[in-house]
Q: What sequence folds into this?
């Protein structure tokens, strides 16, 4: 995309693109600034001038990631004060600006647009869920009692959604719901896992969204749900842009997710703990650590095992969600394990999973799968050398 140099704020910035609304998106020293060219209705989750406003003239997405791999430290005692300082650094008016912050790079933002007749919707998304992706209802990290929060955890999906149509305040709020559902749908389709539970992620713990609609547009809309064309456009563009941003920033893609251990990560089975299981078998495995690691990498991408592992994981999901009974899950799990044993051509007898609580059954089924994978790597001698693999 062609870049044009402008004088803005405290220094030079680059024009990234001009939207159909006439609003302009700039890169300002590695941060995004969207300057609004007319009267706009804005709905923001930001602590700075958040909520519904009709006086906003600028929106920012600030890259906090000064040192890769470290927490993003606040510039002030509160997050709102931190954001106000950012606005001043960018040379914007604190009274007429709202925005978001993230550890994602603006260079890896996804900017996508869809249109239908006289409606246009543009999504500007930065994203990452590897560090703090979570599922609604997961255990919380803190309880707000007025104390300051010292740092921000990396991993955030920030969405700036610009709708070139005039929406009622209610419709703009409905658009926020549709936008959030679309973000979650993108994560579900990528099978992105929570870092805090067995569940699939519905977002990160620090996601932010700013919606903008053009109050000067002759197109007046009152509905933004999934049945309306506007809702369809929002769903399409947000899903697409979220997936692209996750691909660009953290390489989270269908290809990267085609992996035994990526599918199992949220259930606590990783290459590291399977490797430890092999190395702890007191000499039963006649392989070096490097040889085991190589075999683990091969196993991780074995097509038929990825497929069977995916089915096994979804079986555990349905047991956890109480869509299947303990008996049904145990029986189906045994069938899938037997198929894996056949595909891998190993001698392994899963331990009997007792008919206990759902949580205990999930734990037993996971231990059987972990031991099976370790056996596939360590070979038949593992079965003979480990009391953990008795058939019970």
A:
């Amino acid at each position: 995309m062609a870049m044009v140099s402008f004088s803005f704020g405290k220094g030079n910035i680059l024009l990234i693109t001009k939207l159909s609304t006439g609003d302009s998106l700039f890169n300002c020293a590695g941060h995004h600034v969207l300057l609004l060219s007319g009267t706009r209705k804005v709905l923001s989750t930001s602590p700075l001038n958040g909520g519904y406003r009709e006086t906003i003239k600028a929106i920012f997405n600030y890259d906090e990631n000064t040192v890769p791999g470290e927490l993003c430290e606040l510039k002030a005692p509160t997050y709102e004060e931190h954001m106000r300082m950012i606005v001043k650094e960018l040379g914007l008016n604190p009274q007429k600006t709202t925005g978001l912050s993230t550890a994602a790079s603006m260079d890896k933002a996804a900017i996508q647009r869809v249109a239908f007749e006289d409606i246009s919707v543009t999504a500007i998304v930065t994203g990452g869920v590897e560090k703090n992706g979570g599922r609604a209802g997961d255990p919380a990290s803190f309880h707000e009692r007025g104390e300051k929060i010292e740092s921000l955890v990396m991993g955030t999906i920030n969405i700036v959604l610009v709708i070139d149509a005039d929406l009622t305040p209610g419709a703009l709020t409905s658009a926020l719901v549709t936008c959030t559902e679309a973000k979650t749908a993108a994560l579900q389709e990528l099978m992105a896992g929570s870092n805090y539970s067995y569940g699939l992620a519905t977002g990160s713990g620090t996601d932010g969204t700013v919606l903008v609609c053009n109050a000067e547009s002759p197109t007046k809309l009152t509905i933004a749900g999934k049945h309306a064309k506007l809702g369809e456009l929002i769903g399409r563009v947000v899903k697409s842009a979220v997936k692209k941003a996750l691909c660009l920033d953290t390489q989270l893609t269908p290809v990267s997710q085609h992996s035994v251990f990526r599918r199992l990560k949220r259930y606590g089975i990783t290459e590291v703990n399977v490797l430890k299981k092999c190395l702890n078998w007191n000499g039963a495995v006649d392989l070096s650590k490097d040889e085991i690691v190589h075999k683990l990498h091969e196993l991780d991408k074995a097509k038929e095992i990825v497929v069977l592992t995916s089915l096994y994981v979804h079986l555990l999901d349905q047991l956890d969600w109480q869509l299947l009974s303990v008996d049904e899950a145990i029986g189906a799990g045994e069938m899938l394990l037997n198929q894996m044993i056949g595909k891998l051509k190993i001698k392994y007898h899963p331990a009997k999973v007792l008919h206990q609580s759902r949580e205990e059954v999930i734990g037993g089924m996971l231990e059987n799968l972990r031991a099976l994978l370790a056996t596939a790597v360590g070979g038949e001698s593992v079965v003979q050398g480990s009391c953990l693999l008795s058939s019970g």
Summary: The chain is about 35% helix and 20% strand. Residues 1-7, 381-392 have pLDDT under 50 and may be disordered. Residues 229-250 form the longest helix (22 residues). The chain has two domains: 4-250, 260-389.
